[in-house]
Please model this.
Amino acid sequence: MRRKGVSLVVLLASLPLFGQSKPVLDDVKKQAVTAIDARQVFTQQMVDQVFSFAELGFQEYESSRYVTEVLEKNGFAVERGVAGIPTARIASYGSGKPTIAFISDLDCIPRASQKPGVAFHDPMIEGAPGHGEGHNARPAVNVTAALVLREVMEKYKIAGTLKVFPGIAEELLATKACYVRAGLFKDVDVVLGVHVDDAFGTQYGQSYAPQGLVSVQYIFHGRASHAAMAPWDGRSALDAVELMDTGWNFRREHLRLAQRSHYVIVNGGDQPNVVPSEASVWYYFRELDYRHIRELYDLGNTMAEAATMMTGTTVTRRIVGSAWPPNYSKVVAEVQQKNIERVGMPQWSEADQTLARALQKEIGQPVEGLKTAVDKLKAPSPETEKGGSDDVGDRTRRDTAGRTEWLWRRPSHIRERLRRQRCRL
Ligand SMILES: [Zn+2]
Model:
């Protein structure tokens, strides 16, 4: 598939071209689009390379090294292990204002290993992780944009600083809050990102991935005993997990339609003849605003405590990640939309369309192929049927509020918990 240089053209609309008039800016945009199209092979290779690494959150060692080394070879300075996260790196170029950040994610999801170009599930390695959400394409688009922008800035002596952030562990919603806490966005004026979708366009306000969340593990502690010889001496931590989950699933009927909540049992015990002394369950509590996220989280805590009372166990909590609902800039979206319309749609090949139609058939969607027209600018629609979250919300919050370190303005009980939270799994 052929992807044109949207991110870069967006940027050029807002950069100061000293002493230049508007027609020159148009020329620069044309040059940028040409330069991006000239890198089609390079960009595709990056897409494929990151796809081949297929690393889960916090394990993006090869992906992060590869992406930032491409930039390092092209004059960017790379800072490694930022915010105390081993795989988090930032590549920077230039000096002065504005400071423009590109952000994209690198991590993949469990059990999504897949042969490229095949429309049905056909894993390269059975059970292995894979890129099921397009996080392999995002760094390729951003790096291409950053490289071409660097060239343009040099040629026309445009002031400014570029920062490329490979997003770490986005599938766990686990790092952007840590980036904000470490002050990494302090001097950043605008953050741009891309994500794969079934359309080509942009939006503002609270729309795409509208929910914020708390990601929390409940670890129940009981007492081991022989499950046949002395079950009365045991207190099963697994019983507490099951009762919490059952309670939550009954309560689910009486929650707002906007909520999304789901869990996996991380630890269900060891073997049946030993009453499990420890068991844990991992919940995502998603809602559309702080108040409702907080209410879901409090309800989860209540259910966990209630489960301990029923089972004679105790519980500890571990917050693994959190994310605010994203709130995208209208000004940036409007400029971006104009440039997307100017660049136009990718030129799909017949092979692209065949693969898309086959996939649509496979997953039971309308068989209509890839879209051929740019989407209209989407207005905010938080009361959506769509679910999902993105930890970019942590920095968009800062952008709209115009303040840094907003995390510390949270109520003190959450603040203390987050202060103790480590930025690693
Ligand atoms: Zn994603």
About this structure: The chain has twelve helices and nine strands. The CA atoms of residues 46 and 140 lie 5 Å apart. The pocket of zinc ion is lined by residues 105, 133, 135, 170, 195 (CB under 6 Å). Confidence is low (pLDDT under 50) at residues 1-11, 18-23, 397-425.
